[in-house]
Amino acid sequence: MSNTTMMLLICTSLLAMTARAEDKPPIVWDKDAHVGGGFKGLLELNNGDILAAETVGVKPSGQRIICRKCADYGLTWSFYGEIVREETPADMGDGHMIQLHNGDLLYSYRHNYGWGPAEKRDYRLRVAISKDGGRHWQPHSEVANSVGREYGLWSSFLLEKMDGTLQCYYDDEYTPADNGFLHHQWLTVKTWDPAVKQWTKPVTVSRAHDPKDLSRDGMPTVVELSKNHLLCAFETVQVNPPNRGVLMTVTSDDGGKTWSWQKAERHLLYQPKDINFNALAPWMIELSDGRLLCVFTTDEDRKEPGVAATGVLSQDLKYVISRNKGCTWSAPLLIDGNYPCYFPGVCELKQGKRKGSLLVQYWGNLGNTMKSGRF
After folding, report:
1. Does residue 81 belong to any structural domain of this protein?
2. φ and ψ at 237, to 5 degrees?
3. Is residue 326 one of the residues assigned to a domain?
4. pLDDT tens for residues 293-330?
5. Given Cys at both, which of 121, 159, 163, 373 links 358, Cβ 3.0 to 4.6 Å?
6. Is the pTM here over 0.90, yes or no?
7. Helix (H, G, I), strand (E, B) or coil at 330
C-alpha cells in the first residue's frame, strides 16, 4: 500500500471519528492586545521564561537582532542579549528560535544584501547559538547562501526531531532558478551533520506537483506528528491567475527524505472563499490536546485584495484548527481585526500557572503586538 493511499485511509477514519465527537469550543482570545517582544516565533524555555527576537536599527545605517526576555507570561519584556550585529546596511531577521534537548538555544535568521545589481547581491541564512539561556550569542553555522545572483533565501524554521536530528527549512529561490524555474520559490530542508559541522543533504520540501505551475512556496512551519511523520504548513500562490496567496501543507513519512508533493498536489489548508483575496504567513503548532492550531493573516474582509509582492496588505489575524492531524481544518475565526497585521507566530505555554494558555505574537498597530488565549 502506498503512503498516499495510507494517508487517505487515515484521513477518512479520522473524519468519521471527528464527526461523531463533540467539537471543543473555539479558543478565547483576550479582547485587548499589548506590546510584545518581537514578532513571528517566540519561545518558552524549560524554566518558564519566554524569549523573543527583534531586528532593530544601529545608527547610522546598521542593524542588530536582539533577544528580549519575559518572566510574566508575555506582559512585559526587557532587553536580554544581542544575537548578531551588522554595522553596514543589511536585511536581517525573519528568524526562528528553538531550545534543543541539551538546553542550548539556536536562532536561524536571514543576513541579506538583496538590492542593487544582481552581481552585488548576497543572500545568506545563518544560525547563532546561546549556551546560557539567551544572554550571550555566538555564530553557529551558515545554512545556505546565494551570492552574485538575484535569487534570494528567506524565512527559516528550525526543527529538532524526536530522534535528535536537527533540520532547517527555508524559502529558496536559488534552487528552482538553478534548475531552470525562473521566478519560482520552493521550500528546502537541510540536515545538520555534527560530524562535519555543516548543513547537508538538501531536499525539496514543497513545490507544485505539475512542473508547469508556478510555485512560490514559503514561510514554513513543521510539526512532527509521530516519529518521522512530518507535516509542513506554508504559504504559496494559486496556480492560476491572479495567483493570490493561499495556505497549503505537505507531508513526509520518512523524516523529511521525501515529501508528498512528488506524488500528488499539495494539500489545501485554507484559501478565502473569494479567491481574489489572500491568505498568508501561517504559523502552525500542535497543542497539548493533540489538535493543530494555525494562525495566519488574510485580507478577505477588505473591499479590495492586496498584492503580496508590494508588501502593503491590509490583513486581519485569524486562526484555524485541525482535529485530524491536518486532513481537514475548521472555518477561520478572528484573533485581531485591527488591521494591518503581519508575520504572526504562536506558542502554547507549558510551564507555571499559565500552563495550557496561548500567546500569539505579530506585527500590528502597536508595533510588536501580543495577545493571550485560552483553550
Report:
1. yes
2. -125, 155
3. no
4. 999 999 999 999 988 777 777 999 999 999 999 999 99
5. 373
6. yes
7. coil
